[in-house]
Design a protein that fits this description.
The structure is a homodimer. Chain A is α/β, with parallel strands linked by helices and about 300 residues long. At the A-B interface, α1, α3 and α4 of A face α1, α3 and α4 of B.
């Protein structure tokens, strides 16, 4: 599971700071999360194969989170895309995109599915045998969801040193991976746990932007491997954060600390500050394992 | 009169090629022509003072000519703009922009005026004492206008060596600039042309993109100082140009030659070719004074 930050600044895109967009590689899926203006250029910089993106999750309908979506959808068409594309976002996103396609008289030649969201409670929006994605309702000026991306547990792992010399048939190996005990030809039962190791711990990633300080979020993100939480402002602008329904670095750190997450990544920085390290400095006294998002950087889940 | 190219490639923005946008500085106006995705970043690169832009002209509603408009309008708001903004473009542009502002719940705090165009014949869309802007209907897959930007003639210029020794009063100088004759105290009439020079020749700029080869355009752009004409394709793709209602470099050169313009600038290059100089090479045998548009470059009208 790898997370690549394409943009992590708020409000207006500049040449040295890009608005929100991220790529999450999880169990062979390449999920795009938010899509600010210029995201397609950032995807090219990151040398991403465009057609691998089949699911796009949009948190809310503020421009710095989705103005790049119509351009990306158009580019997919121009590049001859054939595979389906699914877009998950607030109600209205279908009308916004289709109206632009209508006036351009340029319908996509691939299937474009909109999954419009309006629930005020967490709901599952995508699920297959390996992955589940659920919404995380946030507290912002317009209807906004974060997203929780979870791997499902994989098979039990064969303990190679434990099975050495047993000469197990393939069917038995498959059974062991599913958690079954092994029965020898002589009828002896060897319990599963003697021959296998626990599955690799499934990874969980929570994307939470944009939001005010919002404690009801905590139980939904407890213990996640990585929490990306917006930190638009420093403590000196706490009142402004409250007024605009954004968070400070300290508030993001407090959420991370209460939810006992492994790692906190801060992002959505206001461009009024010229040193992103200040966010880390304010957060670390509250939550030590705090990182600063950086456009172009990939974070590997351990 | 200065023309700055912000982007001059077609279809999809890349890191090294930007979609259509231009800035025309004319008689203290700063006109923005088209606004592909990422135009606001290109404006920052060019160190343009954003609030000087009060008029934006959109040729047509294909994404590579206007997907950057909503972002620019939003950024103006975030930067605290107070002065009016006028947008000229095809019918539909108001609905497209206001729908996005509505879902973002982010109305502008400056006055935003839409001038929607639907005429099939050339019409004046902006005029003041110094400048006139008229549409140039083009032949493309959707309703499209080019734009003709014309300076109005300035005052006659005082011929300093001719008036030496005459000790003219201020009122007489004003009259001479307006074309009046000068009457001495003794009643002698000195004809205006003996004391003045012709006004500086007014400059004219024609922006023509996107369009198929379209001869009816010729009389409207006759003798302009600079013609910017799209040249999406090279001659080898002439059939594709016809099918998609674009032009080849040779076709653009032919229009320039028939209209007897001073200078032709080619742009809107397809990114399928990796050498923009090929467009110049194909055009020059037909129209010698052909230049190649280059993002970030400013062309001065002589």
């Amino acid at each position: 599971m790898d997370l690549t930050i394409l943009g992590c600044h708020s409000a207006t895109p500049r040449n040295d700071s890009h608005t929100t967009s991220q790529l999450l590689e999880i169990k062979n899926h390449l999920f795009l999360i938010d899509c600010g203006e210029g995201t397609q250029m950032q995807l090219r910089k990151a040398r991403v194969k465009f057609f691998r993106i089949q699911h796009i999750f949009i948190s809310h309908l503020h421009g710095d989170h989705f103005y790049g979506l119509i351009g990306l959808i158009s580019t997919f068409r121009l590049l001859g895309r054939e595979n389906d594309l699914h877009v998950y976002g607030p109600t209205g996103i279908k009308e916004l995109i289709t109206l632009q396609l209508k006036y351009a008289n340029s319908w996509t030649n691939y299937k474009l599915f909109f999954h419009e969201l309006s629930a005020q409670v967490s709901e599952c929006v995508f699920e297959d045998e390996n992955v589940r994605v659920t919404t995380l309702p946030l507290d912002h000026r317009v209807y906004t969801n974060g997203f929780l991306f979870e791997e499902k547990p994989g098979p039990r792992r064969i303990n190679k040193s434990a099975i050495a010399g047993l000469e197990l048939p393939v069917a038995a190996l498959k059974g062991l991976k599913k958690g079954q005990d092994y029965v020898t030809e002589a009828g002896e039962v060897i319990p599963n746990h003697q021959l296998t190791l626990d599955p690799i711990k499934p990874k969980r990633y929570a994307f939470c932007s944009d939001t005010a300080y919002y404690e009801p979020l905590v139980p939904f993100i407890e213990g996640v491997d990585i929490l990306y939480h917006e930190a638009t402002f420093l403590a000196q602008h706490e009142a402004l954060a409250a007024k605009t329904k954004h968070s400070t670095a300290q508030q993001a750190a407090s959420i991370a600390q209460q939810a006992k997450v492994e790692t906190l990544i801060l992002g959505h920085f206001s461009t009024r500050y010229n040193n992103d390290q200040l966010f880390q400095k304010e957060a670390q006294p509250i939550f030590e394992n705090t990182l600063i998002a950086e456009a172009g950087k990939t974070y590997h889940f351990r």
